[in-house]
Amino acid sequence: MGTLETIKKFLGLAKLERVALEIYERLPLFFRYKFIYGRSYLHWRAFLQESEKWDKDRIKAYQIEQLKNLLKHAIKNIPYYKKLFSDYGFDPERLQTLDDIKVLPYLNKETVRDSLHEFIDSSVPRKSLLMKSTSGSTGIPLTFYKTKEPQRIFTAFWDDLLLRAGCTPKSKIVMFWGMIKLGKRKYPFLKYGNRLILSVNYITDKWMQTFYNTIVRFEPEFIIGYPNTLAIFSAYIKEKGYSNFKSLKTVITQSETLYHWQRNLIEEALGVRVFSIYVMTELAVFAGECEHSSSLHTYPQYGLTEFISLDNDHKEIITTGFTNYVMPLIRYKTNDIGMRGNDSCPECGRKHQLIDMIEGRINDFLINKEEKVIPRLMPWIRVFPNTKQYQFFQEQLGKAYLKVVKTEKYTDTDTIFIKSKLAEMLGHMKETLDIEIIFTDDISRTPSGKIIIVDQRLNIRKFLVG
């Protein structure tokens, strides 16, 4: 039995991990960054501060160089791209502009999933690879690989972005997260150092009162979590008539689309600004708000962002990440629908491509009997009274279900109101889409703790142009 195994036997793995977390939080920041995150973390933090105010020409020159290096690596080491570039007669050495990449086709999740090992750098030892899976919120869980280096880079970008909201590693932070597990035991919440972690799997009436009381005692400066979870928690606070957390400065949302009604609800209930972050598990894009604007600022240092039209109203976000050479995703279809903004921010001055709004995922839409997409579904949901949770479900054209988890105040009058509101929002399309309301005790979550707003079983891309 090794030394660590002996310690685990006599101390217990759960307690050992808890103590390790406490010690980690007490480490001086420089020590933590240099010896735990690595020297590259410090270099990237310094680079992001220096490059923040670059002009458009310098940003473009940097992106061209990064893109060219990535493509040269891909043709040499990634089996999928070796064949793809050969088929299209594409030579990375000839890349002169960012538009030159547009001769290559878009990459979708199905291709990556079905040919996974063709996307992995053949020169990297398998033992050094770290595996990660997406939540499958679009119906396609995706496994991908990375090494420690792109994770260190991600952390540098994350800390740089949080700094815009005034959040530093020393700040007291509440985080709504997925499953909290130490050893073999699962916990509803965990406190260590200046962090309080709350499991989203316990967002129930029974536990929300405990969570509220725990947060009050903790006195956080920031709360970070999924928009849907934070909206449910905020609705609970409003319903109970509880006061705001006095020490709270900002709420930070990530990993899900933040809709206007959620932003308004959270800000009203908690009394502070909501600061939104847009990132992907696949390490393909990194974006967030600035100090003054609610538009998402894409980091040009992290990757290249494109937009393609799906129909007259919607554009899909396409990304090429610069940081994960082990499994690069080139012209990757994110399945996220966004509204493209300016190529610089008039408020903060950064020359970064803006996304004025993420409208949802491709699967966040319903299809009517005429095979037409019902646009802008998500703004409807805020009008549903006396509901705890909800989810649309569709598996046939022109027919959908609205699953509702009722509150104690819910009555038949609320059902009538919801039906009338849906008819109003559908307008002339109300005769082509039948939405039946059904009641359930709970809405299932993804393994990461997310609630899918629309469980869409139809192949949405068949009904879109892109």
The CATH architecture category of the largest domain equals 3-Layer(aba) Sandwich
Count the helices. How many?
12
Shape: globular
Number of E-type strands: 22
CA-based gyration radius: 23 Å
> Which class of secondary structure composition applies to the elements?
alpha/beta
- How much of the sequence lies in strands comes to 15-25%
| CATH H-level superfamily of the largest domain | ANL, N-terminal domain
The level-1 CATH class of the largest domain: Alpha Beta
Cα(first) to Cα(last) distance is 58 Å
Can you tell me the number of structural domains? 3
Low-confidence stretches: 6-11
Helical residue percent band: 25-40%
Largest β-sheet summary: 12 strands, mixed
Mean pLDDT: 86
Strand numbers in spatial order across the main sheet: 6-7-3-8-9-10-11-12-16-15-14-13
Q: What is the CATH topology of the largest domain?
A: Rossmann fold
